Amino acid sequence: MSETRIAIIGGGLAGLYAAYRLGKQGIAFDLFEARNRLGGRILSTESGGFDLGPSWFWPDFQLRMHNLVSELGLPVFEQYTTGATMMEDRATGAVRGAGYLPGNTSMRVEGGTSQLVRALAGLLPREHMHLNAELQAVHLEEQGLRLVFAGTLAQLPVYSHSWLALPPRLAAGIQFSPSLPEQNVQQLTAVPTWMAAHAKYVARYATPFWREAGLSGDAFSRIGPLAEIHDACNEQGAALFGFFGVNAAQRAGLSALELKAACRVQMVRLFGEQAAEPIDDSVYDWAADPYTATAQDRVSSGEHGSLDSRFTFAPPWTGRVQLIGSEAAVEQGGYMEGALAAVERVLAGLK
Ligand SMILES: Cc1cc2nc3c(=O)[nH]c(=O)nc-3n(C[C@H](O)[C@H](O)[C@H](O)COP(=O)(O)OP(=O)(O)OC[C@H]3O[C@@H](n4cnc5c(N)ncnc54)[C@H](O)[C@@H]3O)c2cc1C
User: Fold this and answer.
1) Residues with CB under 6 A from ligand 1
2) What is the ipTM of this complex?
3) How far is CA 35 from CA 32, 49, 290, 350, in A?
4) Tally of CB atoms within 10 A around 105
């Protein structure tokens, strides 16, 4: 094994950023993504580019994200927060409260965070990007790493390294031969995948009628089904989005139609009759997506998790297999910034 050839597993932000940076350095790579799309937890609606995954980054303390969107020339704008916040609970019903002031400036990418995915993917060589390629096993052979995928892929080379751009819990599900020691598996499965237990609702409207009524679009509810709602307008249209408060197990018993119907009723309670008929609305349940959430994530509270910074894969995998997904970051683990930080850390150690 002489030549450096890296297999990047996962085409979310971490995998794409790794490919982008390796490409710039002239290092050979192939990227393998299990889904039929790139982006991982980054997903925006087809119509309007409203985010069903991450919406915000915070340039005050997330310089890598700030620099990357600037480098890619992506227009960004500040989250709309002007106006009153709505609150509701069973005792008071829906009431108008003071404005909600997030501590740091929350920025959004125009057209949805998936523009970041599109921009990175557009700079990568298609012949080295493989969709519908779920890694199942890694075998260590004399010549290097032999990868086994669920689908049939053309004859693949062996790789010097495999960078797992995945949540640690999904990495723990990959079969290694020789096998990983139990301690490694436990360390990986102990790390919750951030936001994996969550689901988002997005409703697109003809106008931002709440703004006209002096409301910011922010709302907090103890009734549900949405616990937290925010303005999601962009240049393409008006929208509100919310995070579900009902947990993954409760959601699993309801159809998307039932969830949407309950959300619409709540939107009317909070924002008035104009909210009754969105142009369209979408629900995405990340807890039900096996390429994000494991069974453990579905029952967890969705807390932030970061892999222990001293974590390494045990011999003979040390240095050959690395984790570069967001949850592997020493700082900002779970966030998009964490995905960039985790990649940079491993890149810095590449000999
Ligand atoms: C609802 C929601 C809201 C969020 N809000 C924010 C926010 O506002 N700001 C923020 O910074 N972060 C937010 N996040 C977190 C953010 O999305 C993540 O930090 C980031 O997208 C992680 O990128 P990643 O590449 O590390 O992992 P992922 O995006 O999870 O990518 C992993 C990729 O690996 C693929 N994969 C899985 N298993 C295999 C396999 N065996 N073989 C091949 N491929 C595989 C998956 O399909 C996926 O594409 C949010 C997340 C969610 C779900």
Assistant:
1) 9-15, 32-35, 40-42, 53-57, 134-135, 165-167, 170, 194-195, 198, 200, 286, 291-292, 325-326, 334-339
2) 1.00
3) 9, 19, 10, 28
4) 13
Q: Provide the pLDDT for residue 26.
A: 96
DSSP classification of residue 313: P
The token pair that represents 301 in the structure block: 């509270």
CA angle 149, 154, 156 (to 5 degrees): 70
Which domains, from first to last, does the chain contain?
1-42+113-193+303-351 (3.50.50.60), 46-111+197-291 (3.90.660.10)
* Cα 207 from chain centre: 28
**What's the pLDDT tens digit per position in 164-223?**
999 999 999 999 999 999 999 999 999 999 999 999 999 999 999 999 999 999 999 999
CB 109 within 8 A of CB 76: yes
Best residue for ligand 1 mutational test, from 336, 343, 344 (most atoms within 8 Å of Cβ): 336
CB atoms under 10 Å from CB of 235, counted, come to 10
Q: What is the pLDDT, as a whole number, of residue 302?
A: 59
The order of strands in the sheet holding 161-164 is: 129-130, 28-32, 5-9, 161-164, 321-323
* Token pair in block for residue 210: 């709440």
